[in-house]
Amino acid sequence: MRILFIFLFLGWYTGIGQQKKNYRIRTVAFYNLENLFDVKNDSLVYDDDRTPEGKYQWTEERYQRKLENIAQVISEIGKDVSGNSPDILGVCEVETKQVLQDLLTTPLLQSKNYKVVHFDSPDERGIDVGLLYKDSSFLPTSFKSHRLLLFNADGYRDYTRDQLVVGGLLDGEQFYFLVNHWPSRSGGETRSRPNRIKAAELTKKIKDSICRFDVNARIIVMGDFNDDPRDDSIKKVLRSKGKVSQLDSLSMFNPMERMYKRGLGTLAYRDRWNLFDQILLTPNLVTKNTKSYAFWKAGIFSPSYLHTSIGNYKGYPFRTYVGTTYYGGFADHFPVYAFLLKEEE
């Protein structure tokens, strides 16, 4: 943790100007780890391709390189400002709790003292969401995995990822973190849209139930939504707003909306950038009062080494595979982050 001695200017502080104060900073981040599988064949899920004998030839050597690559990224998210790696990190596309434990034993992360919250989802590919947290700053007091029930046109179950909710104390202050990986756009955006609407409705239901229990709940919703900030699932169902002046008690603030309008993204497909990875906050976190933790700013972590440097995909995220060809990169998404500030006495 770093105590910042800074000139802080928050865009919504009308008429206040610059203030020279000490602040404690905490970093909340989200990262799609792009198929972080171990090399073992699990007979209960379709992971045969992610084994040494499978079509991806997923060997122990490649697995270890993937872990080290991801560890490098996590160790650097927000470090230029906070002086350290994220305090809270939501992740998706992980096969088991063990792969997260393996990640945390890498040299770059071993000393960070991260802990894991993870539940197995019924997803057909065997991928789940999870939450990593530093026990020096966050104490979880509750956690639950919520099942998203989807059915195809024939009435058969379409198995997908659960939504994870973790409540706890961030330096003694109550927070709730919701980690998501909504259904993909497989089959086309229009055809798959209803599944993401249902996922958004489940997220909203979870959020509303927390607020009924705790009317002052501070909630951070993060994830790979497979939708952009302007899509209906985000704008209409979650009632996200890109401007602080538009917020009301039922909406959520989405700092990624302005980034999206500027053409920024976290993944690229057919020379078009999408910003599927987002962090949304309840309005009580977007406040002038920094006596408790409040939102400062958000960003996309995309240093040059995370970009493909040559070829047809130059500039895209430097990923582990393109098709079945091994590239040895990091992931097909850039991580996103948000800083929370609290004024020090």
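The above is record 1. Record 2 follows with the same two-line structure.
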Amino acid sequence: MTDRVFTRIRCREVPASDVFADEHTIASKNAGQATAPGGRRGPGLMAVLTVVAGLAACGEAPPAGWSGYVEGDYVHVASPVGGRLDTLAVRAGDRVRKGDALFALDAQAEQAAQAEARARLAGTLAQAANTTKGRRTDEVAVTRAQLAQARAQAVLAQTAWARQRDLVAQGFVSQASQDAAKAALDQANARVAELEAALRVAALPARSDETDAAEAQAEAARQVLRQSDWRLAQKQQTAPADAQVAEVFFRVGETVAPGQPVLSLLPPGGVKARFYVPETEVGALATGQWVALACDGCGEAIPARIIRIASGPEFTPPVIYSNAQRARLVFLVEAAPRPADASRLHPGQPLDVTRLTQDPG
């Protein structure tokens, strides 16, 4: 009898009247039995006492709600360009505002590259501008003077040719002298035409193809300077938002690899609650619903809105689910408190979560 009764004990609330009713029933059935030697009671009363002891061991029923903890979505601040850590402007626990300086890396190489890029850009811009202009004033003046000289030579050659022509007609000189004078005249006139063309060219800009090539080189130099400016700017990192410095991973003087976080920030909106809901209860929850978060030392319950319900169960054994095993299925649920209440929570802090019947005011 004792074994059969004990195996039926379950950890649930049982009214005291039911327990004593069972004792009365068992006592009635054993009323005719003699007391055991030594004054011990019969097995019926022992069975009742065993039931009472088992119910006492079950303790109080667990409160309605779910267990969870506080999770932090940290922002890891890194520089895409590596280098030696020169300046660290914050410490763990400091609160920073958006735009506040966090750290700076050694930037000598980037500064030199930037200066070089600026110089190259200035050179290519000057070359591009030069292609849109004619020759300098003094160069044009030289060409004009050469043209005047050529014209004077042409006049002199014209006079000499005319004289030789007359002398040939009078028979004083040979035809060869006249031909030489004619050749000198033609040469003088060609020189005048050459210098007149040179003077017109001196006022013209470069050809369009040369201008386009110079402008393309200037644009390439401009983009190189843009890259240098970007690399130099990445050596100094600022806070992307209002947050608290959670951890600092490097000290001044240490070398930081490209993309390696130097510190982590915890913004107010990065605090959320994570709790686990049994499979039998998760169907009653939906994103947007409100829950209450309770923790040690937090004071009044903190309202939080459900932002995520996991699509699959957590810690699920790879077995076929029977009615007894369905209780092992739990689903991860995440809820975000309002920013004003987030400062009361700390990552890793255990939570008790309960459902709110109405939205908080």
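The mean pLDDT is 79.
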